[in-house]
Automatic annotation (TrEMBL):
Listed SUPFAM superfamilies: FMN-linked oxidoreductases
Keywords from the named record: Oxidoreductase
GO molecular function: FMN binding; oxidoreductase activity, acting on the CH-CH group of donors, NAD or NADP as acceptor
Stated name of the protein: NADH:flavin oxidoreductase
Organism: Shewanella psychrophila
Organism taxonomic ancestry: Bacteria, Pseudomonadati, Pseudomonadota, Gammaproteobacteria, Alteromonadales
Length: 350
């Protein structure tokens, strides 16, 4: 029984979703070399327009946010025009789509933005990650530069400009990527934020950058079109720290006051438990956040439907199964068998 997934859902005064199944943001590394979305990407997203809301693959706000090859951008006129082709195709197929706005922070690599002449990697603190860029193993991560107060102000502006560009490109709203160990998340965890100024140490300070980005974007495009993804449980390119709990205890109620379109958990498997969160990330957020919450992470339609019935979250995002099944929503609705996802599917855009 998955009937509840097919109820309409009013996100806020402006947006009504035709069902509760979201397509999760999925990096595919298929933009062209100018980081412009292609026609193949427009076709790929349009095939998934039966979902209540598509969240685009993470899209960089400026050149030094790039950490993987051929990830799309939203900072040049050509990129905005390319995205307009995508949003037109999705709207024509009666879908809705948000842009996920991304800066990878210390996981960026100057290899990708050497044409800008900059070789700096921007992060809260000069604390690097081990290892190298996936599928480009010769590129080892660099020790980042701790951003100055002026650079932080510029980053906030650049997020807001990218959000305005997203609206210009026809997106229905934006999801700020505040999860999975990238720039915003780096401010929110002690492993990556060792600052001693007004952006570090205390929960209010460590939450400051995230809230500044949220507020700048909401002021530019409206709180009702602004959403955020967070990972209270550190799990990707990040070591967890018991002190991180207090940061999210402060941040999440602050977000609730902003009346955003939704809050989305960033995780691969919602069954993961974090001792400092007393369990799952989604249960922790649900206990202190009373507005629209999106759950994700290794759910099937059946387990996701049950979680919604049990009030664990309001909307279900589906990632890998949507790569394997462009017609995921129709298959679930008709009770038909799904194709199982495998990593080899990442090499082509179907
Ligand atoms: C992801 N995920 C992800 N998350 C995000 O916030 N932005 C992104 O661009 C990506 N990119 C991405 C690419 C690929 C290939 C995978 C598999 C995952 C995480 C994704 O949104 C989701 O949280 C997880 O895939 C867990 O959901 P499923 O796949 O178990 O339904
Ligand atoms: C090419 C860059 C893509 C960036 C997004 C990450 C995609 C990873 C896909 C593999 C999924 C495996 C799950 C790994 C979970 C890590 C948490 C412990």
């Amino acid at each position: 029984m998955t009937d509840n997934l097919f109820q309409t859902y009013a996100l806020n005064g402006t947006l009504s979703l035709k069902n509760r199944i979201l397509m999760a943001p999925l990096t595919r590394c298929m933009a062209d070399d100018e980081l412009v979305p292609t026609q193949a990407m427009a076709d790929y997203y349009a095939r998934r327009a039966e979902s209540g809301l598509i969240i685009s693959e993470a899209t960089i706000i400026r050149p030094d946010g790039q950490g993987y090859p051929n990830t799309p951008g939203l900072f040049t006129p050509a990129q905005i025009d390319g995205w307009r082709v995508v949003t037109d195709a999705v709207h024509k197929a009666d879908g809705k789509i948000f842009a996920q706005l991304w800066h990878t922070g210390r996981v960026a690599h100057p290899h990708f933005y050497q044409s800008t002449g900059s070789s700096d990697v921007m992060a809260p603190s000069a604390a690097g990650v081990e290892g190298s860029v996936p599928r480009m193993r010769e590129l080892t991560y660099q020790v980042p530069k701790a951003v100055s107060i002026e650079e932080i102000a510029q980053l906030v502006q650049d997020y807001a400009q990218a959000a305005a560009n997203a609206i210009d490109a026809g997106f229905d709203g934006v999801e700020i990527h505040g999860a999975n160990g990238y720039l915003i998340d780096q401010f929110l965890h002690h492993d990556s934020n060792r600052r001693t100024d007004e952006y570090g140490q205390a929960p209010e300070n460590m939450s400051r950058f995230a809230l500044e980005v949220v507020d700048a974007i909401a002021a530019r495009i409206g709180n009702d079109r602004t959403a955020l993804r967070v990972s209270p449980g550190a799990y990707f390119n990040m070591a967890g720290d018991n002190r991180d709990r207090a940061v999210f205890d402060y941040l999440i109620p602050e977000l609730e006051k902003r009346d955003l379109a939704f809050l989305h958990i960033g995780i691969f498997d919602d069954a993961m438990e974090f001792d400092y969160l007393d369990g799952r990330a989604s249960s922790y957020v649900r206990s202190i956040y009373n507005k629209t919450l999106v759950g994700v992470g290794s759910f099937t339609a059946e387990t996701g439907s049950s979680a919604i019935a049990e009030d664990k979250f309001d909307l279900l995002a589906i990632g890998r199964p949507f790569i394997a099944n462009p017609d995921y929503v129709e298959l679930v609705r008709d009770g038909k068998a799904l194709v199982e996802y495998s990593d080899e599917m990442l090499t082509s855009l179907v």
